């Protein structure tokens, strides 16, 4: 499963949990995992298995398919991921000339 899919599923779990007024501990207990595992699901580090998705869907009164992202969700997540990578890369650079080259390249290739 791709990182983008995991992140979208995790964001949906987090949103539904908060809307329901449940703690991570309560949701983790409902799907038979520990709090750290649920935290990894919500951050998109890992994804719940099929049985856990069914349990989560029952808990939040939705269908399991509602956790899955559509193409627009994946494109939006990919854009967020790429922006994050670019920001991280630029912040790790100490050479102003290299940063300037990247900026000039981006400006000259704008649509």
Query: Biggest sheet: strands, sense, closure?
Result: none
Low-confidence segments, given as residue ranges, are none
**Average pLDDT, to the nearest integer?**
91
Distance between the termini: 31 Å
Question: What is the chain-wise order of helices and strands?
Answer: HHHHHH
Helix fraction bin: over 70%
Q: What is the count of distinct domains? A: 2
- The CATH topology of the largest domain comes to 434 Repressor (Amino-terminal Domain)
Task: Sum this structure up briefly.
The protein has 111 residues and is mainly alpha-helical. Helices cover 71% and strands 0% of the residues.
Describe the structure.
The protein has 111 residues and is an all-alpha fold. It has two domains: 65 residues, lambda repressor-like DNA-binding domains (434 Repressor (Amino-terminal Domain), Orthogonal Bundle), CATH 1.10.260.40; 38 residues. The protein is built from six helices and no strands. Helix 1 crosses helix 3, helix 1 packs across helix 5 and helix 2 crosses helix 3. It is elongated.
Task: Please describe the structure with a list of short key phrases separated by commas or semicolons.
111 residues, mainly alpha, 434 Repressor (Amino-terminal Domain)
Helices and strands in order:
Layout: H1 3-19, H2 24-30, H3 35-43, H4 50-60, H5 71-92, H6 96-108
Helix pairs in contact: 1-3, 1-5, 2-3
């Amino acid at each position: 499963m791709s990182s983008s899919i995991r992140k979208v599923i995790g964001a949906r779990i987090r949103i539904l949990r908060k809307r329901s007024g449940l703690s991570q501990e309560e949701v983790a207990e409902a799907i038979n995992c520990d709090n750290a595992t649920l935290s990894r699901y919500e951050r998109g580090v890992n994804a719940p298995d099929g049985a856990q998705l069914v349990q989560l869907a029952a808990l939040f009164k939705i269908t399991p398919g509602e956790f899955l992202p559509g193409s627009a969700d994946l494109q939006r997540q990919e854009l967020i991921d790429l922006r994050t990578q670019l920001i991280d890369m630029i912040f790790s650079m100490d050479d102003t000339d290299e940063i300037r080259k990247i900026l000039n390249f981006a400006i000259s290739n704008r649509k």
